[in-house]
Amino acid sequence: MFDKLNNAVASSFIGRYFKLGNSGVPNARSTNFTTELRAGLATFVTMAYIISVNALILSDTGGPCVCNSNTGDLCVNDPDYIACKTIVQRDLITGTAAISCIATAIMGIFANLPLALAPGMGMNAYFTYTVVGFHGSGKIAYETAIAAVFVEGLIFIFLSIIGIRQWMTKLIPTSIKIAIGAGVGFFLTFIGLQRSAGIALISHDPSTIVTLGGCPEQYYNATTGICNGHNMESPTTWLGILGFLIIVTLLLFRVKGSMFLGILFISIVSWFRNSQVTYFPYTEEGNARFDFFKKVVSFHPMEKTLGAMRFDIGTSDVWVALITFLYLDILDTTGTLYSMAKFSGFLDEHGDFEGSTAAFICDALSISIGSIFGTSPVTTFIESGSGITEGGRTGISSLTVSFFFFISLFFAPIFASIPPWASGPALVVIGAMMAKGIKEINWEYIGDAVPSFLTIAIMPLTYNVAYGLIAGIGSYIVINTFVWLIEKLSFGRISLDKSKKDPWGNFSFGPGGEGLAPPWFVPVVYKIRGIERTEKIKESIEIKDVKEQTEINHDVAVDVDGKTE
Q: Which residues does UniProt assign to the signal peptide (predicted)?
């Protein structure tokens, strides 16, 4: 049915540029135009939740709104501040859709990869609750934090061009890298279970810090965050639990867009006004929400967050946040890009893929552009895998996703009316999916296991991703340095069996030992020198084989009692 269309597009400039199948260009990819369109739609449906969820989380900063309360309640009962925050949330819906549209298009056009980008989950939580703080209660103002994100994107571009990002990713031990993702997953789950951005299943307790919540609004003290009895009697909490079950069930049956469908169902139930779970109660705030919701199709121009930057980045707190942004972005982007490249079958024999440097630069550039729209760092989404599963292999998939994000710009009233108990379950599920890597942590060697565990535990318990990183890396350095000192000071009489320890410190990149040189630079140097890269690869493989044979010979020479023959 679509063969004629696919052949026409493949033989055109578009088909040749994006290397569609039957386009006649070298290294053409096994895909066609209609497959790419279907893949792009699958990716968008899977990640459309980010528009509402990201805006909901980032709006908890209050944006540039100023809280002048002296009562310590962080303006949670100040109608003027809440009205300002509502505008900020609507701004961020527009900003999230806009930067997702732009960033995904950049990736598709310049890297020709089927990858979608948007403000990253986990990074937005760190930005909101650690850097800026709830309603601006942190050490850094919203405008300054946005400026730090802009600078971080520029640094990331520089590191991607010169290849240092490879070195920085290897600087962190493997198990701690895995633990970072799991820790952020627990952090997101913690947020999804709270009231401000979740289902209100847990609440504050003066003795134990947290406890079971779920009380109706009339029994909740917004100033102290404490439920005054009637726990687990809130209709919206139970509706959120239903949403969680719907999302999980749909995921089990591999339904495309499970999270989006779960969020949409709970939202629709919450849009009826005469119910106990309505998001539009007959209050001043509820009426304002409903008036905006009734517009349905409307473009909301950004009023407060567009270009809201203040380059006051001279303090240590700002640089700690900036460096943390940078490291998390490098780890997240590197892991996602290479996992998606492997999933797509793009990885070559050198462990690299076509367009890798362009992909990193596109990702980094999107971070700086996103900051102009007032959002936290943008990153490549793992949900791109849903489009790849549908057969997406080129940038046309990305352009399709970008088109749908553009369309969503005109449905801001819908996305602004998604209640926290509809999006909260998605955060819990995302947290569970991010935590699945725990099984890959090296639990066999305590010097790797304990720092990894601290990384995971400290993040949600301190509400701070950076503290988890510091705890994990710091404890790793201290523990392993202490062991090294004991071995040296005892002249080897006291030693540990490190055979199960994760390798660390191998900074020789590429099969030819190209060091820190970026992938695009290596072939250029080899060509100038007149050296075939395959010769370097063959040489490195021969050296590796000799080393492995030496180790085998040594093992054979040791008997079962551990004594050398």
A: none
